[in-house]
Structures are given as structure tokens and as C-alpha cells.
């Protein structure tokens, strides 16, 4: 009899543990987290690679750095503005040379960019495991910085390339890693288009060039990492 009472007592003590187990198993943490902050500002740095055009005198890209500001609009939509500088080089090309290679040297070339974009975040106003992937598209302006290099002085005036000012279009994707309420990291991969003007000297029929356009669109690829402050 005492043994029977002991067994019944052990069973009674174990029942709460078995009853609690299913309840604990149903409590599954969600991988999604709401993001309460709506605005962000940050600095970015990365690299750019840009097509140089038919004759190869366009900017080739290089180090890319700048600043960005953004705001969440509604649901997955957001707006942002970015400004930066691409510091790189360009080939100096002499169309008067009679050999195949027209390049006579290189020069530093910086291009400033400023554009606005619409951003679509796949997770809306939440993150998934702290990640928020997005797509974006926008447009703005790009313009060359600096003047002629010493090597440009060796060319006739109509043979010298100047970047000038161009429309700057962007299309790309990226992801944000939200570290906390205020701090986040961001990576971007962008495709861009801008237009470079052909110096008049390249249009001379006497030099053997055919179907030379006054300007041409060239594409670029840009990769950047950002540190972001959200508020």
C-alpha cells in the first residue's frame, strides 16, 4: 500500500510538467521584427566600373564615396537622395594618330553624382532575421570635376574630351542589416547610365572614322557599403 501511494504521488507531481510542455512548444519566436524608425542618413564607400565608350576616352570609374538620406513613405515604399564622387582615371586619346592604338596616356578624372530614388523593400516595415532586402530606381545628374590635364594640352582643342553634365540613371538592389534601433549596415549593387560627348575631332571623315555619334550612352556598375543612422 505505501508503494502504491508513493507511485500515485510521483505521477501527480509529474502531470504539471507534461501539461506545460505542449504550451512551451507552441511559443515559436517570429523571424520578423517591426522597424519603428522612418528616416535614415549615412555615408557610403565602394567601387565603380564604367564603360569608356567606343573610342575609350570616357571615365573608367574608381573609388566611389558619398552620403545618402532616406525616408519610409508607406508600406514597402521609400524615398532617398544620394550624392557622391567617383574618383578614377580616363584614357587620353588622340584621334590624329595614324596607328591603331590612339591612347597617349592617362589622366585623373572625378565625376560628381546626385540623384533621387524610389525604394521598394521586400519585407515592408519589418526585417527578416534583421535583414531587409530592397530594389530601387532613380535618376539625377552627373558632372565632371576638374579641367584639362597636362597631356590634354598636346591635343588640338577639338580633340579634347570633357565630361560636362549628363543625366544619371540608376537601377539596383541591396540589403540592410538592422543592428539595433538606431544603427544599420547596408550594401548596394547598382547599374547606371550616363552620356559622354564625342569631341568634334573624332567626327572628321579624313581620319577614317565612320558613323561617329555626337554622344553615346555608357553603362556602369557600382558596389557600396554604408553605415546608417536611423531616427
Q: Provide the spatial order of strands within the biggest beta sheet.
A: 2-3-4-5-7-8-9-10
How many runs of DSSP E, i.e. beta strands? 10
Q: What would CATH call the architecture?
A: Beta Barrel
Text of the CATH class: Mainly Beta
Strand content: over 45%
Instruction: Please provide the ordered H/E string of secondary-structure elements.
Output: HEEEEEEEEEE
Indicate the mean pLDDT. Answer: 89
Strand count, sense and barrel status of the largest sheet are: 8 strands, antiparallel, barrel
CATH topology: Porin
Q: Evaluate the radius of gyration.
A: 29 Å
User: Gap between N and C termini, in Å?
Assistant: 70 Å
Domain count: the total is 1
The helix content, as a percent range, equals: 10-25%
Shape: elongated
Structural class: mainly beta
Ranges with pLDDT <50 over ≥5 residues? 17-21
Quickly count the helices. 1
